[in-house]
Amino acid sequence: MNFLICLLLGFCIAALGSITPSFLNLTVVKYSLRNGKNATFYLIAGYATVLFFQANLGAYLANILMKNSEYITSIQKIGIGILFLLSINFFRLYFTSKDKVKAKEIPKSKSYFYGILMSLLNMMAIPFYFTFISLIIGFEYFEYSLTNALYFSIGSTIGSFTLYTLYAVVAKKIEHRLNFIAAKMDFILGCLTGAIAIGNVIYLFSK
Question: Which pTM value belongs to this model?
Fold first, then answer.
């Protein structure tokens, strides 16, 4: 039963993260249209491989934080600084990267390794897992152990693979919508990270 709960939690959290439009989703769509679904599955497998370890690391860091609550304020302050820097960077990218970048042609044989590389460049994955696992630990839905973290990571791998596969299958239908959202993604992320940082500042000063 514990296996199923951890698996389901991992699946749901990974699916939630994967369904949000990002450069990973956009790459899946473009790759599927250019190279076909079979090659894209190897790309997605590369994504999922890295996400397995990112979910594990996020669970471990969340467990450390919850056991050492005296460090929470310090971590929050560091996090606020990082969020402000990310917000500034996203706005910089949005206002300076107006030229459309042409996607590079990637050989099908290198799809898996290209997927690994792209997933490693996704800097939001570990903070995402860290945040959500901290929440479910706090609400006592998840108890950290090596076994539970393994089950959770397997679930997250299946969840991310499933969602990215769905993007590959319906690529032709969502290409234009995803391109429009992706064009605004840096601005949206800049607003979100800035708002979260300001919210954390207000929270810290109101304590």
Answer: 0.72
